[in-house]
Amino acid sequence: MDGTQRSSAVLDSLPYYDNDLEQYPILKEKVEQELAREPKPPQGLHPLVPPPYDLFKNNPMLAAELARVEAHQPLPPLDTVRYQLPAPTTSPGTDEEWQAALRNAHAQLEHQRIRHTNLALLQSYGANAWRIHNYRLEEAAKQAEKALEELKEKTVELNRQRKNTQTSYGAQLTALEIKWTELLSSILQIEMANVALDAEVSRIHKREAELENM
């Protein structure tokens, strides 16, 4: 059997019916010894499992952040240099250095203006936006809980059906096993009776020969 046929084979048992290992501990010990001699199963995923999905393939920044989180690395420190207003390093400073410092000051002023605008918008509309966001989260949580309960109910129902089916099949197997045992016992009794009859026939033939000789 090749690897493809082996992977497509479906093996099942009747765990709700087969309790020989619990009834006979020596059988369980033998099974464990036999399993210990078997080669270890492959550590990879089953061939039917789809390959892992590549997240953020088109977004390198999010992919790098996901890799950082998976590696349990801390966040990089905040860059506070861009929030500062450094003066020229030389005294009194060249025109280019003062122009660079002036451009930095304009950029900082624009950044603070945008922050002030964002804070004003947040103060005006942030509360309602937060309530709507919380409402959506609550609805998503309710839907997830409902789906979870439905899945649990389906799981319980499936296990109940499996138990009923296996119990029914187990009763049939038990009846067939008893019938097989009875038939086997009947066959052995018939064979023993045949052996006894053969011996009796041989004895009669021997006695008949003795009488003829006399």
Automatic annotation (TrEMBL):
GO CC, one annotated term: catalytic step 2 spliceosome
GO biological process: one example: RNA splicing
Alphabetically sorted, this entry's keywords are:
Coiled coil, mRNA processing, mRNA splicing, Nucleus, Spliceosome
The superkingdom listed in its UniProt entry is: Eukaryota
InterPro entries recorded: SPF27
Question: What sections of the sequence does the record tag as coiled-coil?
Answer: 134-168
What is the annotated localization of this protein? Nucleus
Q: What is its main location?
A: nucleus
Q: Which Pfam families does this UniProt record tie to the protein?
A: BCAS2 (PF05700)
Similarity annotation: Belongs to the SPF27 family.
Q: What is this protein called?
A: Pre-mRNA-splicing factor SPF27
